[in-house]
């Protein structure tokens, strides 16, 4: 896989299991596209799978965000980037 062209859009869009449309920022380390990963518990007596964890992972370098209870939290955590504070001295 090649690193992305810097002129391409700066995020990818993913649709969650409930139909929500979420924007994923690229990897903070290599700028490659990211992917929403879902891990499901197997179906029980009711026949429905249950979401065990969700996280976002870089498709190039493998960097990943923390495991979260739902897709929205996983995406928000991945997209939350540290912004350095630069004091303005007069």
What does the model show?
The chain has 90 residues and is mainly β. Helices cover 10% and strands 28% of the residues. It has one helix at 71-79, and strands at 12-15, 21-24, 34-41, 50-58. A two-stranded antiparallel ribbon has the order 1-2.
Condensed summary:
The chain is mainly β and 90 residues long. It is 10% helix and 28% strand. Strands 1-2 form a two-stranded antiparallel sheet.
Regions with pLDDT < 50 over 5+ consecutive residues? 1-10
Q: Give the class from helix and strand content and strand pairing.
A: mainly beta
Q: What does the main sheet amount to?
A: 2 strands, antiparallel
Q: Give the integer mean of the pLDDT values.
A: 77
Annotate the secondary structure layout.
Elements: E1 12-15, E2 21-24, E3 34-41, E4 50-58, H1 71-79
Antiparallel strand pairs: 1-2, 3-4
List its salient traits.
90 residues, mainly beta, two-stranded antiparallel sheet, 1 helix, 4 strands, elongated
